[in-house]
Amino acid sequence: MTQAGWISGWRKPSVLPGFGPALGTTLAYLSLFVIIPLGAMVLTTFAHGWADFVGAVLQPRVLAAFRVTLLCAFGAAALCALFGLLLAWVLVRYPFPGHRLVDAAVDLPFALPTAVAGIALTSLYAPNGWIGALLAPLGIQVAFTPLGILVALTFVGLPFVVRTVQPVLQDLEREQEEASAILGATRLQTFTRVIMPALAPALLTGFAMALARGLGEYGSVIFIAGNKPMVSEIVPLLIVIELEQFNYAGAAAIGTLMLAVAFVLLFAINRLQRWTRLQHAD
Amino acid sequence: MARNTALTRRATLARGAAAVLPVVLRPATGHARGRVEIMNVSYDPTRELYKDINAAFARAWAAQADTDVTVRMSHGGSGAQARSVIDGLDADVVTLALAYDIDAIAQAGRLSRNWQSRLPDNSAPYTSTIVFLVRKGNPKAIRDWGDLVRPDVQVVTPNPKTSGGARWNFLAAYAWALDQNGGSDDKAMGYMRRLLKNVPVLDIGARGATITFTRRGIGDVLLAWENEAFLAIAEAGGNKFDIVVPSSSILAEPPVAVVDQVVDRKGTRKVAEAYLQFLYTPEGQELCARRFYRPRLEAVARKYEDRFPKLELLTIDGKFGGWTRAQARFFDNGGVFDQVYRPGG
Amino acid sequence: MRIDVNQPRPAPAAAASAMSRRVVRVTESAPVRWALTAAALGFTFLFLLLPLASVVVQAFAAGLDTYLSALADPDTLSAIRLTVIVALIAVALNVVFGVAAAWCIARFTFRGRNLLVTLIDVPFSVSPVIAGMVQVLLFGLRGWLGPLLQQHDLRVVFALPGIVLATVFVTLPFVARELIPLMEEQGAEEEEAAISLGASGWQTFLRVTLPNLRWGLLYGVLLCNARAMGEFGAVSVVSGHIRGATNTMPLQVEILFNDYQIEAAFAVASLLALLALVTLGAKLLLEWRHASELAATRRR
To answer: Where in the numbering of this chain does the ABC transmembrane type-1 domain appear (chain A) (predicted)?
Structure first.
């Protein structure tokens, strides 16, 4: 059952069988469902050359959509980091009744279909909704403004931060905090100098994951965004709009640019995760 | 109005009871067991109209043919629907918001380029126009297009890039502004710029815009299809909205066509053509009028005369030289809409 | 190893302050703790639970009868059926893929391994809209393979295969992402022992690997299924919105909403919300009973 000799050049030998079939299945499946479809998109983009791609992407409306999407995704990821850290901290450090329930509720955005989340958030934050009606007298309108996008993306991204920070916080050794306290540090100093550096890689990873998710999110956003070009129109919606104007090359070009952004983010996340694991292993 | 919804619901149930629900792996093929199925791919506001038409047509067809017909529906923004048909959605007939979208399907080779001359009245069995829907009592005193650019007025209209209805809205406003300013395009564009500044939400489709205005309480006036405005009043129940008829508007001719490539492959041409012709029959026209689409047939038009206000109706052909030119000039990337839409500016 | 200062006590404030005098302080003062807990609880309620509550309230706003008749609508029933079929296929495919991918990634060291891991993550950070668009670009009538498909009278987009393809794309990482860290954590010793004792590859896999993986696998299946049933953006592009035929539940929610049948829309939405709750409940149960085995998957 050992693999043929030519394989041993690029992989460490192992007594376990099945590498060939498993890798074959994995690659075939990835090709069929991911690589070939995405390849078709990239080929469609560059079928008419580089100039068309640049022309399609540099339109003010496309640039504005990227600005809105990036800003909202960044803002939402930052909010996720803030509230995610708070939730993870409280869940790990302060046992309270209903602890398990809150812990489970954190995963709700994972499990709730995005379209349902979008409709629910819209009906809550519309000027005549439960929350929107309270904010309206203050002159704050959430639904149908970029603020709405921020709310939807924060909802969608929150679990990523909690679920990456929580286990690290759980395994954090209390001895260091004790040592810091014995040496005379205040609790705040201990938090900023001892705890935060240990949590930073995980927090950053969660932030990056929420950001990646936010950039591509569609279902929850289109209901609440108001979808005004240049103001609250997100990139995925623009792709749909280009398709509906029969502009396939334009849609593919925007898609390709998004794919590139996603790759950069994924690369960053993988590096961050390796960093987290190293810190974790100490 | 409550009775209206109850009837609709009953109609849905009745239709459902008769329908078998195959998950379509391969397209339904022809005349299996005396049943035939066709698909009508339509735009947003026709949902209620075709619910009525389909039931009546099924009865009429069963009476004179030896098969039963089921009409499947797909609704969405007109452009989105055309895109799906171009990409292979098996529509036997398309009933869209504007001729440009069916032209696009013809350009992709899915139906004959002379489609518009194959049926009477430019292949538009019913017409409509664009009116204003305002909140009860018209608190902002909105009377005509000129009021829409007042700084205290918020206007809800969908996105002309994705919604056929919104393109009619845009052109109706533009045509009025042209007439007001002695045909000056510069001044008309200035008017559109100020109008669009008052738009707080640009929904993707006409129905989305209606719901934003009626259910979400956004805006002072909704630019809507006449039929959509009447329906919104009926659906909201009570007296929540009024219709304001502007001094002039556009004559909207939502066209219909058989998709040759599909009916020839499926062998459904006969029933598909009968379906569209049914729209022109007195019974079909009557159903259109009841759903507030303006009928073409003189007799039916007279009967329902009092539900359709009289106003000056301009045509796309007369004002803008037809849809192909209007589309290129106003709504393609870099066109008039892109030039005048400068939010926050 | 854990210091017990923050166990719930009858009088936490007094106990904590008493302790902080005796022991060094490794927790915050009581008011800070209370404030933080209150903030977290408030946030959970306002931000996470209220949307769920609003779905339920609006679903039942017109009474139970309306709710039930909304769900008995034939178009809605067909949407439910389609959603279940699509999820079954997508989850089954992704389980096979997830196990294969985890086997080669967690059990072997080879060049290009990191690239493979990144590739598996791609669908996760690519917009679902793109997942739908690529199917159209490939299989649409004007796409690369569309004309060929039409010659053989086969439908992919605007039919079940296209919806499945888009759903598989979007849910592809879920099972693999659960299994890879779990298998890495468990190590290969047991399998190596089985092989050296003469078991065949399949025997080893079925008797050793799979039993060790089952809870992680179930966990992955749960998340994958929830996403598969709830996918909106990707499916919306390839569905064609044919009523009673190619609408999934999330699309049906949107359609009913646009048909002025708001209660019916929220009724279907409440079913999807129920799915979310069942998923969370099952997850909670798994974590509670098999915490140690699942711990690895959290440390991603």
So the answer is: 66-269
